[in-house]
Q: What sequence folds into this?
């Protein structure tokens, strides 16, 4: 989604790229337990249909009267749902994932080469925060992300399509040593919130009313997603899975991009943890 949610890769610094060569790539067991617990796509889709106000000829309680969506609204919802479906399909396919980075705190990043020779990256982490808190930070209050994520200059919600779908414009921050350069992104984001699990999916979208901005290269997200799941029934801790699938565009060598993206995931997770810790201290 957010999955495609973060664009720190566009602010990756040269020291980070240099440090990649020295990382110890310890062989670890492939993290896949949380994927086996993913609910079948049909159940997720049923949940989204029920809450999107769409007519799918499914039985409903008599008092449930969803408001029909306009054609353009339906388009955005369908694009978001399709991005979610494709991203979850990538995660559920457990073949050919290779470990890229393992951190001392338990964070693991694996990668897979997709058709077209583009790599996607899967981050697994445990965060000291509940599902609702993370959903609020990463979806509901996404426009405030620049306050704690230095890799983002701003995020603006251009369209609210019901409570579960938004269209956003994002600009990455300009940072010292930036090899990739500033990018802007136009994305549709879709969420599916359940009791102990949240799915955030997203992908690039085109709007005639919002063409690429002067001075930026427009990169493209997705399909990608984030899965947030309560950890072993502990409502104060969450398992965080992030599928990052991005085309940064431009003329950058793949070797640089494929080093920058997983480092960006770790940077984002570090800033998120710092923000969560600061919030807990203030609370």
A:
């Amino acid at each position: 989604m957010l999955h495609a949610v973060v664009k720190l890769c566009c602010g990756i610094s040269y020291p980070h790229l240099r440090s990649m060569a020295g990382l110890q790539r310890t062989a670890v067991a492939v993290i896949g337990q949380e994927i086996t617990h993913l609910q079948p796509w049909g159940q997720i889709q049923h949940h989204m249909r029920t809450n999107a106000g769409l007519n799918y000829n499914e039985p409903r309680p008599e008092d449930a009267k969803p408001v029909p969506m306009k054609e353009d609204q339906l388009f955005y919802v369908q694009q978001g749902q399709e991005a979610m479906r494709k991203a979850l399909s990538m995660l559920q396919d457990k073949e050919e994932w290779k470990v890229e980075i393992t951190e001392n705190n338990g964070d693991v990043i694996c990668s897979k080469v997709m058709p077209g020779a583009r790599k996607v990256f899967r981050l697994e982490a445990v965060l000291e925060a509940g599902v609702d808190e993370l959903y609020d930070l990463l979806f509901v209050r996404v426009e405030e992300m620049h306050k704690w994520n230095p890799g983002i200059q701003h995020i603006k919600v251009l369209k609210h399509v019901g409570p579960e779908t938004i269209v956003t414009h994002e600009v990455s921050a300009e940072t010292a040593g930036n090899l990739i350069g500033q990018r802007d992104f136009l994305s549709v984001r879709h969420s599916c919130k359940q009791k102990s699990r949240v799915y955030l999916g997203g992908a690039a979208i085109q709007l005639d009313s919002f063409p690429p901005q002067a001075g930026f290269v427009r990169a493209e997200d997705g399909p990608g997603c984030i899965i947030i799941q309560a950890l072993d029934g502990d409502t104060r801790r969450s398992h965080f899975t992030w599928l990052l699938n991005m085309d940064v565009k431009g003329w950058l060598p793949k070797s640089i991009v494929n080093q920058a993206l997983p480092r960006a995931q770790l940077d984002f997770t570090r800033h998120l943890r710092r923000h969560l810790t600061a919030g807990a201290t203030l609370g």
User: Anything to note?
Assistant: The longest strand covers residues 183-193.
